[in-house]
Amino acid sequence: MADGHGASGHGGESLLYLTDEQLRQGIEAMFFAYRGFTADPDRILSGLAYGRAHHRAIHFINRAPGTTVNNLLSILGVTKQSLNRVLRTLIEDGLVESRVGRTDKRERHLYLTDAGSELEQRLSDAQRTRMRAAYRAAGPEAVAGFRTVLEAMMDPDMRRTYHKLRESGT
Amino acid sequence: MADGHGASGHGGESLLYLTDEQLRQGIEAMFFAYRGFTADPDRILSGLAYGRAHHRAIHFINRAPGTTVNNLLSILGVTKQSLNRVLRTLIEDGLVESRVGRTDKRERHLYLTDAGSELEQRLSDAQRTRMRAAYRAAGPEAVAGFRTVLEAMMDPDMRRTYHKLRESGT
DNA sequence: TTGGAATGTCAACAAGGCTGACTTATGCTG
DNA sequence: CAGCATAAGTCAGCCTTGTTGACATTCCAA
């Protein structure tokens, strides 16, 4: 672990373990791990004239079918213009369907088509495979800690969104 | 935890806890947490005509002073043209210094100037503050698990780079 | 019924990735 | 020493994906 201080055991309540060096290692771990996290889907997408933004849209439409554009916007944290460009190509290519709202005709509800679902599967299979390998290698306790820290790192708004998705998802 | 299966306890060696739903939650946690992770430095940088790419360069030059351009390239995983654009503005603005190598004059060794160090401090203070809060909230065991999973998620090359930085850093 | 709010679209621009082609300076090896 | 390899930098041009601004449509409430 090579942290230059004590408190390396697992049971310590010590508050001294948060040296700048330890925090910096966490920061770098996040950076390098995120690269791995996105690498596999990126590889698939690069052959398809799509990018990471398309992946994100497809992921969350699959996760919450029938979501409105506005809702998707707040999940993704981009401007509606930015999302729209991505969405348009997905609709043109027949991966996403946009249905006018029944009660409020201003709204568009988004669904994956069969082709869209198929791509979603391909992408998330790749990502899950890596995730599964990492989880297996690290073990259940590490996974629990991993999730706890990630959640604590989110902005409150994002944490709320994250929880809402979890409720609907299971 | 509401995962629809058993194996929710912490001590299980069960291999059944890796449902697609659990993995997807991990994926979403990564996504939302990374947003939080970059939010604070991004805010500082947006007022300064710099972006995330500048932050990364500054971070790793600070971490490994005297690094060559080539070495920085392999850490960041971008092309030299892409890095060069960023590096040029940092040098022009007097945040980074580029010294011709003493033994091999083809190489350029990169250092932060005082102004560069100052900005680095501002940026990493912001990022560390969030990290520290998350670590505190999650506790030492969770932090250990967090790091273990992140490391398992990296590509082997990145893991090697990550370890090399840790050795030099401590 | 009319004005404001919400929703979605179009256009233009910037950051920061990428490839490809090339130059310059230097190191190394036959 | 000649010639190839390596490190760095530059120019040009492309793509994705973020941004703002302007605008059309729709809903709802005063």
Primary descriptors:
170 residues, 7 helices, 3 strands, DNA-binding, globular, mainly alpha, homodimer, Arc Repressor Mutant, subunit A
Low-confidence stretches of chain A: 1-13
Structural classification of chain A: mainly alpha
Gyration radius over CA of chain A: 20 Å
Number of strands of chain A: 3
Q: What's the arrangement of strands in the largest beta sheet of chain A?
A: 1-3-2
Number of separate structural domains of chain A: 1
Give the overall shape of chain A, derived from the CA principal axes. Answer: globular
CATH superfamily label of chain A: Winged helix-like DNA-binding domain superfamily/Winged helix DNA-binding domain
Beta strand % of chain A = 5-15%
Give me the oligomer status: homodimer
List the helices and strands of chain A in order: HHEHHEEHHH
State the distance separating the first and last CA atoms of chain A.
37 Å
As for the CATH topology of chain A, it is Arc Repressor Mutant, subunit A
CATH architectural type of chain A = Orthogonal Bundle
- Biggest protein-protein contact in the assembly: A-B, 72 and 72 residues
Q: Write down the overall mean pLDDT of chain A.
A: 88
How many H/I helical runs of chain A?
7
Secondary-structure map:
The structure is a homodimer of 170-residue chains.
Chain A: H1 20-46, H2 52-63, E1 67-68, H3 69-76, H4 80-92, E2 96-100, E3 108-112, H5 114-138, H6 140-153, H7 156-169
Antiparallel strand pairs in A: 1-3, 2-3
Helix pairs in contact in A: 1-5, 2-5
Chain A binds a DNA duplex (30 and 30 nucleotides) through helix 2 and helix 4.
